[in-house]
Write a structure and sequence with these properties.
By secondary structure, this protein is of the alpha+beta class. Helix content is 22%, strand content 17%. The protein is globular and about 30 Å long.
Length: 110
């Protein structure tokens, strides 16, 4: 039987996959409400194992800018660049949701 070997330039172990992804809506309504600056603020505050990306419409027009953290499925609405450090520190680094930014449709206050 022939042994199959990997090419020398191919990594022996797969690169780590990000455990979380922050998606910032970049569709028209969210862009009008400042989503470009929100995305830039997240990218300026990198967190290990967290991918930040702009997304197409997340279907919540008029409540933006909308930010979705997956796989947590936590939705934030009305996000401003000034609160991004809070989301980064509290949610992405400590795993605690930022209650005052939670989108009421998916996270109703009890």
């Amino acid at each position: 039987m022939t042994e199959i070997s990997q090419p020398s330039d191919f990594p022996a172990t797969p690169s780590p996959v990000s455990s979380k992804c922050v998606r910032v809506c970049q569709n028209r309504a969210c862009r009008k409400q400042g989503a470009v600056k929100v995305l830039a603020a997240f990218k300026a505050s990198p967190v290990p194992e967290v991918t930040v990306t702009g997304s197409g419409c997340l279907g919540q027009c008029g409540n933006g800018p909308i930010v979705l953290v997956v796989p947590d499925m936590v939705w934030y609405s009305g996000v401003r660049p000034s609160v991004v450090p809070l989301v980064v520190e509290q949610h992405l680094m400590r795993g605690q949701r930022v209650a005052q930014l939670l989108y009421y449709r998916f996270h109703p206050q009890v």
